[in-house]
């Protein structure tokens, strides 16, 4: 069954529908569907165990995020399908988030995620522990005899150093995939979408991911941390944060290495691997200088 046939078969539409692919998804396929009454976003994607993606968890997080006022409403769901209310909005870019005025709007939304989504979450919840994910990805790559296998021992050694440096850890309910495109601006407010990797984690992982995914300057990082924690930045917090930022970049690198082998989505994962590996190496050198 094609994606279009699957969407037609949902039985929730009022009259004929128009289906338009939404570009950008690299773990699922997204479509804008228009019927005679409204527009909806349809996300098609099954569990991806190799990436720790569980669609029941994604559904529960999406429902909780909507109840917390952060994310669009879930209209319909069934295995492998999530239908969401369409928000007339523009996805942010990295350049947007680098703007200090936009960053000042983004940070409170991330903090609201950490403080409020868990209160609405129902059922078994995931833990997204980046260092476990890194080790698991390395094992997957080794088993697949990946071309990256020889570099894995050194990367895992660095991961162990980062895990020690990043503690002690606070725990909150995190989004864990703060790409710029997961923030929508409708002209009045921001929305946070795409809860594939949601789960309990340290807030510093989301903050590190927000900075690394959007290549924030050091000054912007300091602003982000002081806004989030509402207090002056300390040397200890800066060191712990930088360790988690490095871990975020390392996880993204290994994610892409694994995707090179296993993903069927048309995306240049090899280039994405190279880009993130280079960014990880730069960030890790900066982390070492600060120790």
Keywords, separated by commas or semicolons:
2 domains; Phosphorylase Kinase, domain 1; 10 strands; three-stranded antiparallel sheet; kinase; Kinase-like_dom_sf; alpha+beta; Aminoglycoside 3'-phosphotransferase, Chain: A, domain 2; globular; five-stranded antiparallel sheet; 291 residues; ethanolamine kinase activity
Quote the distance from N terminus to C terminus.
55 Å
User: What is the number of strand segments?
Assistant: 10
Radius of gyration: 19 Å
Envelope shape: globular
Unreliable sequence segments: none
Classify the helix fraction into a percent range.
Answer: 40-55%
Beta-strand percent range:
5-15%
Counting DSSP H or I runs of 4 or more residues, the number of helices is 10
CATH class of the largest domain: Alpha Beta
N-to-C SSE string, H for helix and E for strand: HEEEHEEEHHHHEEEEHHHH
Assigned CATH superfamily of the largest domain: Aminoglycoside phosphotransferase (APH), C-terminal lobe
Structural class: alpha+beta
Q: How confident overall, as mean pLDDT?
A: 95
CATH structural fold name of the largest domain: Aminoglycoside 3'-phosphotransferase, Chain: A, domain 2
């Amino acid at each position: 069954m094609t994606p279009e046939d699957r969407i037609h078969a949902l039985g929730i539409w009022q009259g004929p529908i128009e289906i338009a692919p939404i570009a950008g998804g690299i773990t699922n396929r997204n479509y804008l569907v228009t019927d005679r009454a409204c527009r909806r976003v349809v996300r098609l994607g099954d569990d991806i165990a190799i990436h720790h993606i569980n669609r029941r968890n994604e559904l529960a997080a999406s429902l909780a995020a909507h109840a917390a006022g952060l994310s669009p409403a879930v209209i319909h769901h069934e295995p492998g399908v999530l239908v969401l209310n369409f928000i007339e909005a523009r996805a942010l870019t990295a350049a947007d988030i680098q703007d200090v005025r936009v960053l000042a709007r983004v940070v409170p939304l991330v903090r609201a995620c950490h403080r409020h989504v868990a209160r609405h979450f129902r059922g078994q919840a995931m833990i997204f522990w980046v260092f476990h994910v890194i080790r698991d990805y390395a094992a997957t790559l080794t088993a697949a005899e990946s071309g990256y296998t020889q570099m894995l021992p050194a990367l895992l050694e660095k991961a162990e150093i980062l895990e020690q440096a990043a503690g002690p850890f606070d725990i909150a309910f995190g989004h864990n995939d703060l790409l710029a495109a997961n923030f929508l601006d409708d002209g009045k407010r921001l929305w946070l979408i795409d809860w594939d990797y949601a789960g309990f984690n340290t807030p510093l992982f989301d903050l590190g991911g927000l900075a690394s995914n959007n290549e924030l300057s050091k000054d912007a990082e300091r602003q982000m941390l002081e806004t989030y924690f509402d207090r002056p930045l300390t040397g200890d917090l800066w060191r712990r944060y930088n360790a988690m930022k490095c871990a975020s970049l390392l996880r993204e690198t290994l994610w892409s290495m694994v995707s090179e082998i296993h993903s069927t989505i048309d995306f240049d994962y090899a280039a994405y691997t190279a880009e993130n590996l280079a960014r990880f190496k730069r960030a890790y050198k900066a982390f070492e200088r600060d120790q």
